[in-house]
Amino acid sequence: MPNSPVSIPLTSDVTLRLLHRDDGTALADAYDRNREHLEPWEPARPVTFYAAEYHARQVPVQLLEHSSGRSVPLVMERDGEIVGRVNLSDIVRGSFCSAHLGYWVDGRLAGRGLMTAAVEAACAHARDELGLHRVQAATLLHNEASQRVLARTAFERIGTAPRYLKIAGQWQDHALFQRILHD
Length: 183
Fold this sequence. Notes:
Blueprint: E1 7-9, E2 14-18, H1 24-33, H2 35-38, H3 52-67, E3 72-78, E4 81-92, E5 98-105, H4 114-128, E6 134-140, H5 144-152, E7 156-167, E8 170-180
Parallel strand pairs: 5-6
Antiparallel strand pairs: 1-2, 2-3, 3-4, 4-5, 6-8, 7-8
Domain N-acetyltransferase: 14-183
InterPro entries: Acyl_CoA_acyltransferase, GNAT_dom, N-acetyltransferase
Keywords: Acyltransferase, Ribonucleoprotein, Ribosomal protein, Transferase
């Protein structure tokens, strides 16, 4: 089960925090502002995805997943504006004790080390607060920036998954990475 609310300062002006119930409009704004930046790396989105109403309906679903211990939906916030996402999803307990990691940062802030700090913070939360053993991430084979983030945060490449996810309208191969959180 989730513990206390997550709020982690990443820099003097950027915080990684748990998604709030009223974040629908800010999420829609962030995705719309970053539409071109994210399109090559994400599933094809219908136009309704960029509307505040869509996210207003999705936020409670994501928070229910969090309250049931199946995910940790996080946002990166700067001056009241959402500038990225980090999600621990598909949390499995028992002998697996693992989660999937997904993330993106606003194109205006890319290349500044924010995502490295956010991934490190999410992994520390997964280990220290959730007691997870492992976090897995996947990137498109040509997403070198994302692979650098994973390398800097102690993820190791464990293989390639052919036609793993439908990204930008095409089934695409992905590199798989993991980070073991406990010795």
